[in-house]
Amino acid sequence: MKVAICIPRHGDTRGDFTISLARMIAHSLSRPAPGGARLELEIFSLSSSDLPESRTRLLMKAIQWQARYLLWLDSDHVFPPDTLFRLLGHGLPVVGCNQPRRSEPTGPVAVKLNEKGEMEHVWTTEDLAKAGAVEEVWHVGLALCLMDMAVLHQVKAHVEKGVGWDRWAPFDRKLAPGTNVRMGEDISFFRELTEAGVKVYVDHGLSWEVGHIAERVITNARAVADREAWLGRHK
């Protein structure tokens, strides 16, 4: 079973991400995949500041390689070694992780529609994680997301009724309905999927174990605030 690991990046990958990737590959190739299949992995990566273009080219590479699944990974995340097996084990068309945003304050990326059709953020809690909850959502991020490539047949049938498959630009940042604000390339992509009837899910258990690598400015004010913890670090 061929799994394309697609990694858009801007320059080098983060060190902790690279370690997570290596551990996941070692784990994934050391035993049979869910269902007993033998995995064949290939890594596709592009360095560019044009994220929509990078994702489009990576998707095309996965299609050309005839991948059965595509695992999207962003190069500023950490994740457990069994990540791929856990996502494959769900047997779902699209399932990803609800990673926290790299901002202060932070919040989740996953969104669902409520009964009124309004967008609501989806929060991954420790209780949901312990319960192993898998929840259907409207969209999630592509930072860590597994896609069954078979869904593209469904998407293609839908796209052919509109712009046509040859003109399909899945990651173009489209305007949010009723606004002049452009959506992120990942949200635009999930809009394309859900409009074609493809269901998207979040794995809360795995989401709880994923980390988003962020930079921070460390000042002496922070050092003073951390003084007791620093002095007691060897006790």
Question: What does it look like?
Answer:
This protein is globular. It has helices at residues 15-29, 51-64, 83-89, 126-130, 151-159, 185-195, 204-207, 220-225, 227-231, and strands at residues 2-9, 40-47, 69-73, 77-78, 94-96, 111-113, 119-121, 134-137, 144-148, 200-203, 211-212. With 235 residues, it is an alpha/beta fold. It has 9 helices and 11 strands. The protein has one domain: Alpha-Beta Complex (Spore Coat Polysaccharide Biosynthesis Protein SpsA, Chain A), CATH 3.90.550.10. The chain has a 7-stranded mixed β-sheet, with helices on both faces. The chain has a two-stranded antiparallel sheet with strand order 4-11. Strands 6-7 form a two-stranded antiparallel sheet.
Strands, helices and their partners?
Blueprint: E1 2-9, H1 15-29, E2 40-47, H2 51-64, E3 69-73, E4 77-78, H3 83-89, E5 94-96, E6 111-113, E7 119-121, H4 126-130, E8 134-137, E9 144-148, H5 151-159, H6 185-195, E10 200-203, H7 204-207, E11 211-212, H8 220-225, H9 227-231
Parallel strand pairs: 1-2, 1-3, 5-10
Antiparallel strand pairs: 3-9, 4-11, 5-9, 6-7, 8-10
User: Which class of secondary structure composition applies to the elements?
Assistant: alpha/beta
Distance between the termini: 50 Å
Rough shape? globular
β-strand percent reads 15-25%
Compressed to H and E, one letter per element, the order equals EHEHEEHEEEHEEHHEHEHH
CATH superfamily: Spore Coat Polysaccharide Biosynthesis Protein SpsA, Chain A
Give the fraction of residues assigned to helices: 25-40%
> What's the helix count?
9
Number of strands: 11
> What's the CATH C level?
Alpha Beta
| Main β sheet profile | 7 strands, mixed
Mean model confidence by pLDDT: 90
In the CATH scheme, what's the topology name? Spore Coat Polysaccharide Biosynthesis Protein SpsA, Chain A
Spatial strand arrangement across the major sheet: 2-1-3-9-5-10-8
